[in-house]
Design brief:
This protein is mostly helical. The protein contains 8 helices and 3 strands; from the N terminus they run H-H-H-H-H-H-H-E-E-H-E.
Length: 315
């Protein structure tokens, strides 16, 4: 007989600090305005690249802020497995936009190289203002990155996960390097009066954006393909059950795990004594479920209760 522990509809613990995502969106919005003004004044392709990146960052940070809340809403009849898929969709869209921005910037840089009038839009005399903007942007991006990194470490320490938080941290960490590259490129273009440094910086920023998009796409694909837990987290599930202190538990088999956004899903067969009454077996199942939910935030547990004589048939 198939016995499953009743699925809980408790609200998932908040693992992506909403305040961090909100501040990231606000600061990024301010930087976008500054960079837009700097590009309009100088015509620098490197500043344009940084402006487009910040514009995408701002839009996506506001989306992440909303998604991180929606993804943790309690399960309902339409979404019995919760709303973690919102984060997967948002992170995948974000990675596509970041990659698209990188490709656009590369094409803009190449167009400026091969166009006969490609360098005429660059106003070298006004580049010092752009340097000031990029220096400020570098410092601000470093601050945002540290805030998000702290939140990410807290989530990892509690075995929690948020694709929105990971995505924001990934592109703001890339922004620090990207802003430094832009600063150096614009500085060289101003100091040596050569537009080539500006173009090289723009192309470098485009490549950085493509590199930033890759791990985001990889994580989304893992969730979509129902990939197993990280080996350490899977081993922890096995350890918690093995060391639960319930003498009647004879072991588990057919353990399966997967992740969807901030939610973890675990199902397995729990071996119990052959002659144990069903009500007692159900009580033990409830205790195992409570233990896993206490130690692994956001986990959803489904178990099949087997007699100990049942042969193991792991994958």
């Amino acid at each position: 007989m198939l016995c499953s522990v009743e699925q809980s509809n408790d609200v998932l613990q908040e693992v992506a600090p909403v305040k961090s995502l909100r501040w990231a969106a606000i600061i990024s919005g301010v930087l976008t305005l500054f960079k837009g003004g700097a590009f309009a004044s100088t015509g620098s392709i490197a500043v344009l690249a940084s402006f487009l990146d910040s514009l995408v960052d701002t839009l996506l940070s506001f989306v992440n802020f909303k998604v991180s809340v929606a993804a943790k809403e309690r399960a309902d009849r339409k979404h019995p497995y919760g709303h973690g898929g919102f984060e997967v969709i948002a992170a995948l869209a974000q990675s596509v936009l970041i990659a698209g921005s990188g490709v656009l910037i590369l094409f803009q840089s190449l167009d400026r190289v091969f166009s006969p009038k490609g360098f005429e839009n660059l106003t070298v005399e006004r580049l010092p203002a752009a340097l000031a903007v990029m220096l400020f942007s570098t410092i601000a991006a470093a601050v945002i990155s540290q805030i998000l990194n702290k939140s990410k470490k807290e989530a990892v320490a509690s075995d929690s996960r948020s694709l929105s938080l990971n995505a924001d941290h990934a592109h703001y960490s890339g922004d620090v390097l990207q802003n430094l590259v832009t600063f150096v490129g614009v500085g060289c273009a101003w100091w040596w009066k050569t537009p080539w440094a500006d173009v090289i910086a723009g192309m470098t920023v485009g490549l950085i954006l493509l590199k930033t998009a890759y791990p985001l796409v990889r994580d989304c694909v893992r969730d979509i393909m129902n990939t197993e837990f990280d080996p350490k987290l899977r081993a922890r599930v096995e350890q918690l059950i093995a060391n639960c202190g319930i003498l009647e538990v004879q072991g588990i088999h057919r353990l399966r795990t997967r992740t969807l956004g901030p939610s973890h899903f675990v199902d397995f067969h729990l071996k119990l004594p052959n002659i144990m009454p069903l009500i007692q077996a159900h009580e033990i199942g409830d205790r195992i479920e409570a233990l896993l939910k206490k130690e692994i935030p956001g986990v959803d547990v489904l178990m099949h209760l087997d007699p100990e004589a049942e042969p193991d048939d792991d994958f």
